[in-house]
Structures are given as structure tokens and as C-alpha cells.
């Protein structure tokens, strides 16, 4: 005799239960480090009794925990392990590969990704413009902190302890005739969220740069567009800037960043 088939909607109910569980986990992450049941229920817009049932299941599996002193809820050890594993798999070079190539296709200008290395801003990926004459740096090139838009964006967002030695060296090399209030410039870059230069590193070449952030809000890379001044306009309010910001925001989101 054939066994009775499960109701067709039982699978949908399980999927819905999983969706509710993940919604509650996301809310616990957003309300970190802990929250009351009433606040959590309000946040996910569900009855407190329903949220409480799901919390008990999450606590049993180690994905949530309750503080016995306050009765507040927070993420559990298993959630931490999953989060750390996800962070460990976030390679900015891999995450940025597709957005970087799409940005190049959209504007037909050379685009590259740089990370902060032992010697400063280091180019790790390049998407050259698809035309006979392109402006391309080399993978492995180290860009100056104060003499490139890429370096200036790193200088604006990195902790000063990481840039101080290079900053001091470059200021010494520039000499007193090039005195400049870089602290004010860094603040302006942070306010605008990007930076442009006109022929600073290479005469006749414009550059436009924006930061990429990780899940904890630290800068992990900079995406830069470079092109000849005659055809590329590195305007911070222009169409290229909007596309650059869209690309860096997409990469940052994939890295787990939420502004």
C-alpha cells in the first residue's frame, strides 16, 4: 500500500518558518548586542508570542541566547561561528571582480582596485579601457599617499597610525614649499565619499576614487577610474562619479557593510 503523500502546502510552511527564523536572526544582529522581546517583536512586526516561540528554537540550536539577568536576547555562539566563517570567505578581490568589469564597460575608462599594503596603496586588479590608447597602471604598483586620488582616499579613511610613517616621509620629500592642510582635505573626502584629481600623478590624466568598506565599516580597498583629461571628466557630481559610487556601494554591501 502506498504511503500517503504529505500535504502540498507542508513544504511551503517549512520555507516560511525558515524565512521567519532568518528574519529574527537578522533583527538580533541589527539590535546587537541585546534586545528585549517587545522591542524585537516590534522590529520584525510580529506578535511577541510568535517571536518567543522562534526564539526558543533558536536558543536550542545555539543561534540565540538569553541573558538571565536582564531577560534580553542576543545572538548565540553558533551565529558567531557562521558570521566569522562568512567574513573569512569575503575576499575583496573576488567580490569586486564583476562590479569592476561592469564599471569599465559602463564608462569605457580604465578602472582598478587597490588595497593597503606594507608600502601603501597597492594596485591588485585592473580593467583597462577597450580602446587603442588606454591609461593603465600595473598590478603591484604602489601609489603615493598624497600624490594620487587612491592614496588620498586611503589617507582619509585609514586610522592615522597606519598612514603616519608614509605621510611623514612624503611630506618631508615634498618640502616646505608644498605645505598643505591634508587633515582638512581628508575631512572633505570623508564628507563627499570620493575624491578626484586632475593631472596630479600624471599630467593629462584625471582620476576619480571611492572607498570600499567591510562588515565592520573599515576601508578595505579603493576603486579608481583613470582616463585622459581630453575625454574623461573626473567630476565628483558627474555621471562617472555616480556609477563609481554605485559600484563601490555594491562591493561594500557584498562585503557585509551597512551604512
Quick overview of this protein structure:
The chain is an alpha+beta fold and 259 residues long. The protein is 47% helix and 18% strand.
Question: How many strands in all?
Answer: 8
Report helical residue fraction: 40-55%
Beta-sheet strand percentage? Answer: 15-25%
The geometry reads as elongated
Element pattern in H and E: HHHEEHHEEEHHHEEEH
Strand line-up of the largest beta sheet: 5-4-3-8-7-6
Query: How many discrete domains?
Result: 2
Note the gap between the termini: 59 Å
> How would a crystallographer describe the biggest sheet?
6 strands, antiparallel
> What is the CATH topology descriptor of the largest domain?
Beta-Lactamase
CATH architecture label of the largest domain? 2-Layer Sandwich
Which regions are unreliable across 5 or more consecutive residues at pLDDT < 50?
none
Q: What is the top-level CATH class of the largest domain?
A: Alpha Beta
- The radius of gyration over CA amounts to 24 Å
Judged by helices, strands and strand pairing, the structural class is alpha+beta
Amino acid at each position: 500500500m502506498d504511503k500517503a503523500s504529505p500535504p502540498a502546502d507542508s513544504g511551503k510552511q517549512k520555507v516560511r518558518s525558515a524565512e521567519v527564523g532568518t528574519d529574527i536572526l537578522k533583527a538580533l544582529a541589527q539590535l546587537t548586542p541585546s534586545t528585549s522581546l517587545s522591542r524585537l517583536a516590534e522590529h520584525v512586526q510580529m506578535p511577541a508570542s510568535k517571536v518567543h516561540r522562534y526564539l526558543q528554537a533558536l536558543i536550542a540550536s545555539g543561534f540565540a541566547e538569553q541573558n538571565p539577568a536582564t531577560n534580553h536576547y542576543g545572538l548565540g555562539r553558533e551565529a558567531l561561528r557562521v558570521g566569522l566563517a562568512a567574513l573569512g570567505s569575503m575576499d575583496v578581490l573576488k567580490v569586486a571582480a564583476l562590479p569592476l568589469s561592469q564599471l569599465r564597460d559602463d564608462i569605457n575608462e580604465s578602472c582598478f582596485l587597490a588595497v593597503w599594503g606594507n608600502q601603501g596603496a597597492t594596485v591588485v586588479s585592473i580593467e583597462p579601457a577597450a580602446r587603442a590608447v588606454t591609461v593603465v597602471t600595473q598590478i603591484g604598483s604602489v601609489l603615493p599617499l598624497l600624490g594620487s586620488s587612491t592614496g588620498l582616499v586611503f589617507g582619509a579613511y585609514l586610522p592615522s597610525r597606519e598612514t603616519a610613517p608614509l605621510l611623514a616621509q612624503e611630506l618631508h620629500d615634498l618640502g616646505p614649499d608644498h605645505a598643505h592642510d591634508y587633515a582638512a582635505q581628508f575631512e572633505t573626502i570623508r564628507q563627499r565619499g570620493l575624491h578626484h584629481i586632475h593631472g596630479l600623478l600624471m599630467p593629462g590624466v584625471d582620476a576619480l576614487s571611492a572607498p570600499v568598506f567591510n562588515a565592520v565599516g573599515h576601508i578595505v580597498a579603493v576603486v579608481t577610474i583613470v582616463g585622459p583629461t581630453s575625454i574623461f571628466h573626473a567630476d565628483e557630481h558627474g555621471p562617472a562619479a555616480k556609477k563609481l559610487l554605485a559600484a563601490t556601494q555594491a562591493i561594500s554591501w557584498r562585503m557585509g557593510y551597512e551604512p
